Sequence to fold (339 residues):
Amino acid sequence: MFHPALTPDAPLDRHNSFRVPARAVWLAEIENPDHIPEILDLPQTRNLPRLILGAGSNVLFTRDFPGLVLTLRNRDIKVLADDAKTVLVHVEAGVRWHDLVTWTLERDLCGLENLALIPGLVGAAPIQNIGAYGAEISDVLETVEVFDCQAGQGRRLDREACRFGYRRSQFQKEPDRWVIIAIELKLSRKAPLRIDYPGIREELAALQADPPTARSVAEAVIRLRRRKLPDPAEIGNAGSFFKNPILTPEHGQLLRDRFPELPVFESPLGKKVSAAWLIERGGWKGFREGDAGVSPQHALVLVNYGTATGAQIWSLAQRIQDSIRADFGLELDVEPRIL
Ligand SMILES: Cc1cc2nc3c(=O)[nH]c(=O)nc-3n(C[C@H](O)[C@H](O)[C@H](O)COP(=O)(O)OP(=O)(O)OC[C@H]3O[C@@H](n4cnc5c(N)ncnc54)[C@H](O)[C@@H]3O)c2cc1C
Fold:
């Protein structure tokens, strides 16, 4: 007898935004997180590898997953506290991220407007500290509620404990130990809007949004994203595939002597160079081999034109890494999780 939440030999094609074929030995779709310990301790699942999956928009399956894929379907949003200035919101992991952004905008709450239209579910958002257009979830995140699979119990972690950085968190150090069940966000009724990121002011002007509001900033971000990024509903992709490399001062100088037009920008971790520029300069933008390719729209985005496998996309990614290492002496780190 199968447990009702379990599907055996489950196809994962619809559970990853690259739309590559893969199967899991078991798939568990769980509405009530109280059932997690029971699912993890079934005779069929107990000794198998485990993967916690959201909407699959930041993973690449290069083969079948030899174990249990667990995904949460809890979808409640509620207000925990509300004063004149701030609102504390509790959001369950299975809520679509952009639905949460829309929910906050409908209530004139500020804090998530720059993060509009990021694909995926709320439970995954703290994993890589999602960020865009000058904002990150860690700016507003108060608490993460988790189930600790190692200790077999629930815990609440504050922002400090999550150790957030640029597309980084503590959770990545022990993947699949922590199941994020819900998060708490502190949103503001009147936060200063972040409109300095390149492109936002121009879009606001085009929208005649004067003065700008959280809603108009979100609208500007949505317009920018729609223009720049291929839509995973139309063409398989996982957004940016590579991170921007950080330069040592010596290497930065060497590269700038060789390539005076090299786009370098400041970050809290030091000077960074645009990975998109490196890839374009390496001649990869728009490259296609079979159905695996580099988007002609955005050099950081690898795409599946239809029937590419994860292994083919991963092989292309590694060729790009080799070429950037040979041309510029730089390592391109990968953003999605390779499975
Ligand atoms: C077109 C496109 C644009 C994108 N733009 C951005 C962007 O601007 N900024 C940005 O930061 N990201 C961006 N991404 C990446 C992606 O949207 C985010 O990383 C998102 O948070 C992934 O959510 P998901 O539910 O799909 O997670 P998944 O891909 O399912 O999982 C991602 C990671 O989180 C883990 N995980 C998922 N859910 C849980 C949970 N409940 N508990 C514990 N671990 C969990 C998984 O094991 C995996 O390691 C983009 C992706 C696409 C396709």
